């Protein structure tokens, strides 16, 4: 930056502000100015002329002329703070008259046509008055003191004034500026109450009833106040006391209007409503990276849907249908969503019949994994690749987010969790606005709306108009999020779409990778207790075994183990051995990459072929899984965002159902597991199993005596 040549000048009584620090001038030297602190504390500092010139060029210096002068400083400060709008219209008109005469006198004085004496002003009074009228007309037009009037009407103008008044006004104007033309009359008048103490006390008691949660009207308060005064005067008349005056309607109304808006909202609408209405708005969050802050919350969808779908029931086991409460009734579903506050992209979405920790965990798990399969299943045109490790997760104080299982899962993933204060939804404004957008842009298009309140709903028959199944709504919701919401310009992103913002910021800053499968299995796995045997550990009839587990079985008397079983990937479980999590794979490799939903459906398909089948061979399981893959390829996984509500109790009910005797990975498979897992064990005497190598694909093993099978 080029610094202008020359020196900076400060007056003796100037106040100099450099940056945010105030100084006063101590002395001037050949090199610069010696400035001391304005409050008189601290040492003086030498500022060179070159430095002061650079500060002045950059706009970093402010000079308040004659600030420390006893009279001039006070006058300059008063004129700097003078606000004409603070005066009433009457006093502004009087101020305009005086200013008009002062400007008129000053004009003639500069031309040498008038002297500042009574006699000279009196001789030129007519010309001074004519000029003052023009100045006053310009003042009125500039400050909008009167509306434009039609011809033939009246107009405001200056009246005749004595030469002495004009001279005194001009003298005050020259010495004190504009402030000198304002007298104290605008502060005059009785500012307090003119009522007696008894009347004022009774009036305040009556008016305070306006601050009531029942929200009485001003008209009713005025009528009740007059009635109360009449009753009081009747009582005083019986006791021989003097009558108190009844306040007028305007007096009562002015007392009601004297309450502050916040006070009125606080008492009439409640603390939460008042806080929401008067909550200060700042600059908002300052975020830069994707997933730097993610907000999660739940919302009961304003829509009645039919909790049943024929295509969905064909792909789900009956036990899972009961757990998901797909009984065919018309219900409102609960939506749990997670949104990235930086990019406004949805990173998690689940539907469940009711609020629960399982649905919240499903949504949190969804934020960490690729959601492309959900988008492909509904035929979306845009990708849904928003996933990664979260830095901060913000929730409300709902029971599902305060549960030990949810908090433990987040902490095991290394995610910081913050719960916003109750009653302040504006602290989670991003997710709250999302639900409003969903209701306005998607739900409002569908039949069966329940609306946000009974007044808005009116006589609309929500249940009678419910025609969409929950599968239909899940499909439309995913399609709307991926193809509509993510590609719509967002006002909070300055017109950029959420998908464009995600792609731009992820290419600049990158996204922290999601946790590995073991970490997710420990965090989101259903906690179960199982007893280890020489066949390993059984969960839903699937055998899990390896050398580490069998070594523990041989060396320890305690056989009860804590395990983590993830429904989304049942090929491997985590077993707690000596306070350390150890991965244990399923005996049959066909379970790798399979879900609990696949296995329950596989079991139903096999049971249809042979209801008495118990211990299953590899060929039968492989054939069943191939049939499931074919069904999914045809129908698609449209229920992908529906929470399946897998819990420890749910797993127990599954195992107690009709097919508890199913055993995948039997006695021979345990000893011949792929990868060398498992050890040879002695079997009890009984009929030999049919060799798996001699069985055709899809063939059911021969039946054996029922009393020889172990469950």
Question: Overview of this structure, please?
Answer:
- Residues 306-317, 451-467 and 668-711 have low confidence and may be disordered.
- This protein folds into 5 domains: 15-80, no CATH class; 85-148 and 156-185, no CATH class; 197-278, Arc Repressor Mutant, subunit A, CATH 1.10.10; 294-509, Nucleotidyltransferase, domain 5, CATH 3.30.420; 524-708, no CATH class.
- A hairpin with a 7-residue loop joins strand 3 and strand 4.
- It starts with 14 loop residues before the first strand and ends in a 40-residue tail after the last helix.
- It has a 5-stranded antiparallel beta sheet, covered by helices on one side. The chain has a 5-stranded mixed beta sheet with strand order 10-9-6-11-12.
- It is an alpha+beta fold.
- The chain contains 27 helices and 20 strands.
Low-confidence stretches: 306-317, 451-467, 668-711
Helix content: 25-40%
Mean pLDDT: 77
How is the main sheet built?
A: 5 strands, antiparallel
The number of helical elements comes to 27
CATH topology of the largest domain: Nucleotidyltransferase, domain 5
Secondary-structure-derived class: alpha+beta
| Approximate shape | elongated
Strands, count: 20
- What is Rg? 42 Å
- Top CATH class of the largest domain: Alpha Beta
* End-to-end gap: 87 Å
Spatially, the strands of the biggest sheet line up as 4-3-2-1-5
Per CATH, the superfamily of the largest domain is Ribonuclease H-like superfamily/Ribonuclease H
């Amino acid at each position: 930056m080029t610094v202008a040549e020359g020196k900076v000048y400060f007056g003796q009584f100037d106040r100099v502000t450099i940056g945010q620090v105030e100084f006063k001038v101590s002395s001037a030297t050949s090199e610069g100015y010696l400035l001391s602190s304005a409050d008189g504390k601290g040492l003086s500092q030498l500022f060179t002329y070159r430095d002061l010139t650079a500060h002045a060029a950059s706009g970093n210096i402010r000079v308040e002329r004659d600030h420390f002068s006893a009279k001039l400083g006070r006058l300059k400060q008063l004129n700097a703070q003078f606000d004409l709008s603070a005066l009433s219209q009457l006093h502004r008109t009087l101020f305009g008259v005086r200013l008009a005469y002062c400007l008129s006198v000053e004009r003639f004085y500069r031309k040498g046509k008038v002297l500042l004496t009574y006699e000279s002003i009196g001789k030129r009074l007519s010309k001074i008055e004519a000029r003052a009228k023009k100045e006053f007309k310009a003042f009125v037009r500039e400050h909008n003191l009167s509306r434009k009037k039609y011809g033939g009407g009246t107009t405001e103008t200056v009246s005749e004034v004595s030469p002495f008044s004009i001279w005194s006004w001009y003298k005050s104007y020259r010495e004190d500026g504009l402030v000198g033309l304002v007298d104290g009359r605008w502060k005059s008048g009785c500012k307090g109450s003119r009522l007696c103490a008894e009347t004022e006390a009774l009036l305040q008691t009556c008016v305070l009833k306006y601050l009531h949660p029942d929200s009485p009207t001003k008209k009713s308060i005025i009528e009740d106040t007059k009635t109360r005064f009449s009753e009081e005067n009747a009582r005083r008349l019986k006791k021989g006391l003097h009558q108190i005056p009844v306040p007028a309607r305007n007096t009562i109304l002015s007392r009601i209007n004297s309450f502050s808006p916040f006070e009125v909202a606080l008492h009439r609408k409640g603390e939460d409503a008042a806080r929401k209405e008067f909550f200060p708005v700042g600059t908002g969050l300052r975020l830069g990276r994707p997933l730097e802050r993610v907000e999660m919350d739940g919302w009961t969808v304003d829509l009645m849907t039919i909790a049943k779908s024929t295509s969905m029931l064909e792909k789900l086991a009956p036990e899972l249908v009961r757990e998901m409460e797909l009984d065919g009734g018309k219900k409102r579903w609960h939506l749990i969503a997670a949104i990235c506050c930086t990019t406004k992209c949805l990173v998690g979405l689940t539907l469940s019949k009711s609020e629960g920790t399982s649905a919240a965990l499903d949504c949190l798990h969804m934020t960490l994994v690729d959601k492309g399969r959900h988008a492909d299943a509904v035929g979306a045109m845009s990708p849904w690749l928003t996933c990664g490790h979260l830095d901060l997760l913000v929730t409300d104080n709902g029971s599902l987010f305060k549960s030990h299982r949810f908090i433990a899962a987040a902490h095991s993933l290394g995610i910081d969790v913050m719960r916003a204060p109750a009653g302040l939804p504006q602290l989670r404004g991003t997710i709250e606005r999302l639900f409003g957008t969903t209701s306005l842009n998607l739900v409002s298009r569908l039949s069966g709306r329940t609306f946000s309140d009974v007044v808005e709903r009116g006589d609309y028959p929500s249940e009678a108009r419910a025609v969409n199944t929950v599968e239909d709504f899940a499909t439309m919701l995913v399609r709307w999020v991926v193809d509509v919401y993510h590609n719509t310009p967002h006002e909070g992103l300055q017109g950029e779409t959420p998908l464009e913002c995600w792609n731009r910021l992820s290419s600049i800053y990158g996204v922290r990778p999601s946790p590995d499968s073991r970490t997710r299995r420990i965090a989101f796995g259903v906690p179960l207790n199982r007893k280890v045997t020489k066949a390993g550990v059984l969960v839903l009839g699937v055998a899990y075994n390896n050398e580490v587990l069998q070594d523990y079985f041989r060396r320890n008397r305690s056989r009860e183990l804590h395990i983590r079983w993830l429904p989304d990937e049942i090929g491997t479980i985590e077993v707690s051995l000596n306070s350390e999590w150890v991965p244990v794979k399923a005996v049959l490799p066909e379970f790798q990459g399979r879900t609990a939903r696949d296995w329950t459906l596989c079991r139903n398909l096999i049971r249809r072929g042979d209801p008495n089948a118990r211990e299953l061979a590899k060929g039968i399981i492989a054939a069943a899984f191939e049939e499931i893959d074919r069904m999914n390829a045809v129908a698609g996984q449209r229920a992908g965002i529906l929470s399946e509500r897998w819990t420890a109790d749910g797993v127990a009910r599954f195992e107690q159902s009709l097919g508890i005797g199913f055993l995948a990975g039997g006695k021979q498979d345990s000893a011949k597991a792929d990868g060398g897992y498992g050890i040879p064990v002695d079997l009890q005497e009984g009929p030999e199993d049919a060799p798996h190598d001699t069985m055709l694909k899809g063939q059911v093993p021969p039946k054996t005596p029922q009393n020889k099978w172990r469950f």
